[in-house]
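Here is one chain, start to finish.
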Amino acid sequence: MKRRITALLMSVLTVSGFMMSTFRVYSQTEEQSSLYMFNPLLFNPAYAGSRGSVSGVGIARFQWVGIEGAPMSQFVSLHAPVANQNLGLGLHASNDRIGARSRTSVFADIAYHLRLNKRGHRLSFGMSAGVDWQVYDFNQLVTYDPNDPVYNYYASKVRPNFGAGLYYYGERHFIGVSVPRLLRNRLGDGVNIGEGLQRRHFYLTGGYVFKLNSVVDFKPSALVKVSENAPLTFDINANFLIMNTLWIGPMYRFNESVGLNVAVQIKESVSFGYAFDFPYNGINAFRANHRGTHEVMLSFDIRSKKKPYLSPRYF
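Its structure:
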């Protein structure tokens, strides 16, 4: 039975990867985060409840600081296990603004965790449901032609959506595949905004922890992102955990940026993180105006007194 479940999982991941590799794509619309490994609930509902505690994360991202209209994003998530850790419930929200467009999203998450063996390996199935509030205020743009379709255009729409995901994890490994938004909602009415439809985004993520010695652990991880209307891109992180207290390591985002992630365990239940990445693509034409991308994070875990804290918390 365990072999069948593992084979099924690998088959799903293989088929998902094949599907993602066949799309012809041009641009991405989903928010991105350099500290994604600390907030997987943002893109995979199957993560809900997997930490075994009441967990919360808040992240603020300031992209291309110094450039007017550059992206700014905020992410908040909260989740916890119920029913003897077999079920997880969560809530996550995000706010993203770039130029004249903004989107605020609120989603509820539910996940079922199936224990596979005595080593604590689990396979989680997750679903999410919520709404996206999208605002297009083209009055903020400089236009010279009154006949331009976007001249004085303003739209505010609230639309429902759903997501799904799988998450396989243990003490030192994890792998997940997800689609945060299954519905292809129309982006605007009365004006042509690109293709006018919200595209599905597919996420494949994974990581493993190698124990180098009694002081240092090494955790490489990757996040592959594909849209029906965007080129395949991926993030690679190589984090080192020092004395179960400090996470630090470089990051690389394909064809876009390089940077550094740092996270510190302030108390037994509180962590603070910071990420800096600098683009090496076409945005460098604005090198004199921008000062890179900055991201800050605060997270917490609240556990019952009957359940001791796990140290370290790899995932």
